[in-house]
């Protein structure tokens, strides 16, 4: 078992299209400093998908918003490095980031009904996204391009659909339109923030397939933000599990799903019912609520909710665990328990519950 | 659309009929008679009866009402102690006080009110919504605080206070502006504007305060909407995001409020007209009530109701034009 001395350096792939190093995002508020993201490091290659998993308030959406540079610089303190195609977004001027937004990196949001403008036709909204980065394109060319994209994402009768308003679309079609809008400029990086949460289960699978399909075609790097481990297991190559603004476990999708090491990851896995396993097995919910990002618990932020806190004397309550190698290459975990203890606990308590089975 | 319009027009006419009946009944519920008001304190009962008869007040209420309605649609003939007066449709009768046909008095007073309200509306829609939007975009800044602080001040000011102060400062003390007066725009547009500048400013500023606060709140809410975030994520410049995406959505509810306000103001802005001694329909209505001048009361009430009802229909139709999600039916 190797212990890396510099956990941040260990996980960044210098070849990757997106490289995030030690990202910290803080919002000063009247109640105190909100540490929304507190030292996150990851990278995504083109053609690869990274799943970022965590509950609400774990910092996953804030992370994605910082990659697009969407936080108000007057009200946000950002440090670290976000390198998109070799350009560092952190500290970049708004006008420069704006030119990258929607062109090099694009985003799909959770609720396509509220994310599309209710007063403009779908085709117009997509054409607008194209035109802003292709100022020389004619209005007609932009519209043609919009119809093309609608067709590409599998919307029947794209010509007619482009002339309709978002409320005339079904949920799944709306999310397809949203994807068409995000991909209209062939971005190398696509961030999907809970893209299937607001959709019917049957439509979810279609949307995920579409994303995979488009990824193969455009070789884009995708970040899939979700709390749904089913989605992660279906589309992700790598997974980053976040808790309280910090990474708690990271590794390949197989490592995280099959050999999870962090009690929080266990909790996520054991609390989701499995379609394939024994339907009568009890689910094990994670007790309690996500912590306040203004006042994180001392020591391991997960300690108030962890069934195994205090296994190593007082360390859970006094010392913040660092990401360390969890045994296999690329698999890292931030937990004070020893590898052997974790193996034993996992086999005894978790392996039979929820999707963990 | 057509079905909607027919339905709404039917409803509107029913409303107007109901209002006219209620006004008629209320008028006769007052324990006094127009004849006493007109004839004065030392009038003999015979004289009062004579006056009442000449005004048609000796007839039963139902007859009076049907005569009134007949006059509106077909015209009617008045027989005032041998003097025959033909009153063509739409006949709203003759003023008890001045014997002027009520339609003439409406034609005289309505343009005054219309001029005051339209000008003031231009002021409060531009100043109010403009300031509110700018304040929302610079939320928390010095500009925002000053603008919103000032709007609280203006919103809690009354027309007679602000109007009086402005009259004193701009007209009586310094003579910067002429005494407010009404000149028809067709006669002399410059005199029309300069004569109404003060009421425009007064009514405009007080309403601006309200509209600034409304539009600021509306804009701040809209700026947090997902579709605004989407617009930014597309890489649109801030200006485009604010104008094309946020403003467009934020302004929709303001259209409703402005439309309904316009409707109610066109029925008369009594205090503004009184403060600046302009003979608008609001003052005419107030005087008519004080004088128990039934034909004029009926006319002004119906005109006010007509504007409110009409503006409501227009606002609803406008809404369907602005917001594609709204279907009229």
UniProtKB/TrEMBL annotation, chain A:
Tagged with keyword Transport: yes
CDD domains documented for this protein: ABC_NikE_OppD_transporters
Topology in membrane: Peripheral membrane protein
Localization, UniProt: Cell membrane
Keyword ATP-binding: yes
ABC transporter domain boundaries: 18-269
Keywords tagged on the record: ATP-binding, Cell membrane, Membrane, Nucleotide-binding, Transport
Pfam family membership, one: ABC_tran
Any GO MF annotation of the entry: ATP binding
Protein family per UniProt: Belongs to the ABC transporter superfamily.
Protein name: ABC transporter ATP-binding protein
Automatic annotation (TrEMBL), chain B:
Subcellular location: Cell membrane
Spans traversing the lipid bilayer: 9-30, 112-134, 146-170, 190-212, 249-276, 296-322
Keywords tagged on the record: Cell membrane, Membrane, Transmembrane, Transmembrane helix, Transport
Domain ABC transmembrane type-1: 110-319
Topology relative to the membrane: Multi-pass membrane protein
Record-linked PANTHER family: DIPEPTIDE TRANSPORT SYSTEM PERMEASE PROTEIN DPPB-RELATED (PTHR43163)
Membership in a protein family: Belongs to the binding-protein-dependent transport system permease family.
Protein name: ABC transporter permease
Species name: Actinoplanes sandaracinus
């Amino acid at each position: 078992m190797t212990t890396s001395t510099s956990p941040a350096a260990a996980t960044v792939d210098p070849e990757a299209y997106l490289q995030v190093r030690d990202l910290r995002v803080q919002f000063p508020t009247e109640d105190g400093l909100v540490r929304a993201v507190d030292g996150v490091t990851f990278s995504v290659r083109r053609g690869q998908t990274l799943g970022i998993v965590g509950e609400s308030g774990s910092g996953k959406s804030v992370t994605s918003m910082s990659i697009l540079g969407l936080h108000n610089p007057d009200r946000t303190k950002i440090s670290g490095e976000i390198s998109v195609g070799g350009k560092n977004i952190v500290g970049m001027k708004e006008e420069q980031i704006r030119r990258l937004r929607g062109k090099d990196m694009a985003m799909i949001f959770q609720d396509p009904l509220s994310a599309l403008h209710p007063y403009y036709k779908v085709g117009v909204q997509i054409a607008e996204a194209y035109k802003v980065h292709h100022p020389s394109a004619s209005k007609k060319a932009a519209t043609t391009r919009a119809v093309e994209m609608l067709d590409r994402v599998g919307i029947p009768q794209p010509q007619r659909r482009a002339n309709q308003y978002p409320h005339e679309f079904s949920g799944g079609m709306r999310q397809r339109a949203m994807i068409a809008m995000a991909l209209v400029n062939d971005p190398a990086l696509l961030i999907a923030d809970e893209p299937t949460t607001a959709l019917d289960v049957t439509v979810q699978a279609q949307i995920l397939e579409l994303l995979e399909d488009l990824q193969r075609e455009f070789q884009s790097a995708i970040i899939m933000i979700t709390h749904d481990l089913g989605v992660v297991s279906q589309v992700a190559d790598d997974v980053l599990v976040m808790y309280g603004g910090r990474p708690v476990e990271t590794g390949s999708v197989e490592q995280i799903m099959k050999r999870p090491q962090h009690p929080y990851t266990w909790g996520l896995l054991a609390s989701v019912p499995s379609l394939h396993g024994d339907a009568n097995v009890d689910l094990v919910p994670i007790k309690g609520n996500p912590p306040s990002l203004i006042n994180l618990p001392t020591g391991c932020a997960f300690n108030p909710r962890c069934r195994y806190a205090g296994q190593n004397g007082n360390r859970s309550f006094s010392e913040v665990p660092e990401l360390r190698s969890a045994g296999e290459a690329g698999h890292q975990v931030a937990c004070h328990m020893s590898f052997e203890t974790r193996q034993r606990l996992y086999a005894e308590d978790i392996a039979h519950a929820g999707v963990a089975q | 659309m057509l079905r909607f319009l027919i339905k709404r027009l039917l409803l509107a006419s029913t409303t107007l009929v109901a209002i006219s009946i209620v006004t008629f009944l209320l008028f006769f519920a007052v324990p006094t008679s127009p004849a006493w008001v007109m004839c004065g304190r030392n009038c003999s009962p015979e004289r009062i009866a004579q006056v009442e008869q000449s005004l048609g007040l000796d007839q039963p209420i139902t007859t009076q009402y049907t005569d009134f309605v007949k006059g509106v649609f077909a015209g009617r003939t008045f027989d005032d102690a041998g003097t025959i007066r033909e009153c063509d449709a739409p006949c709203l009768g003759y003023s008890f006080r001045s014997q002027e046909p009520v339609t003439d008095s409406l034609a005289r007073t309505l343009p005054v009110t219309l001029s005051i309200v339209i000008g003031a509306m231009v002021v409060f829609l531009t100043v109010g919504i403009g300031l509110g939007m700018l304040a929302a975009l610079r939320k928390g800044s010095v500009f925002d605080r000053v603008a919103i602080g000032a709007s609280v001040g203006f919103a809690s000011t009354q027309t007679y206070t602000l109007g009086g102060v402005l009259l004193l400062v701009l007209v009586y003390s310094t003579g910067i502006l002429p005494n407010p007066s009404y000149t028809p725009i067709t006669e002399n547009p410059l005199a029309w504007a300069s004569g109404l500048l003060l009421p425009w400013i007064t009514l405009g500023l007080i309403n601006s305060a309200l509209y600034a606060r409304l539009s600021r709140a509306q804009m701040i809410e809209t700026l947090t909407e997902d579709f605004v975030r989407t617009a930014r994520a597309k890489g649109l410049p801030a200006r485009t995001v604010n104008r094309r995406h946020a403003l467009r959505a934020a302004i929709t509810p303001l259209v409703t409020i402005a439309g309904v306000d316009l409707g109610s103001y066109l029925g008369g802005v009594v205090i503004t007209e009184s403060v600046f001694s302009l003979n608008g329909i609001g003052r005419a209505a107030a005087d008519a009530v004080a004088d128990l001048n039934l034909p004029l009361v009926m006319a002004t009430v119906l005109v006010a109701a007509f504007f409110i009802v009409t503006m409501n229909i227009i606002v609803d139709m406008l809404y369907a034009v602005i917001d594609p999600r709204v279907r009229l039916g």
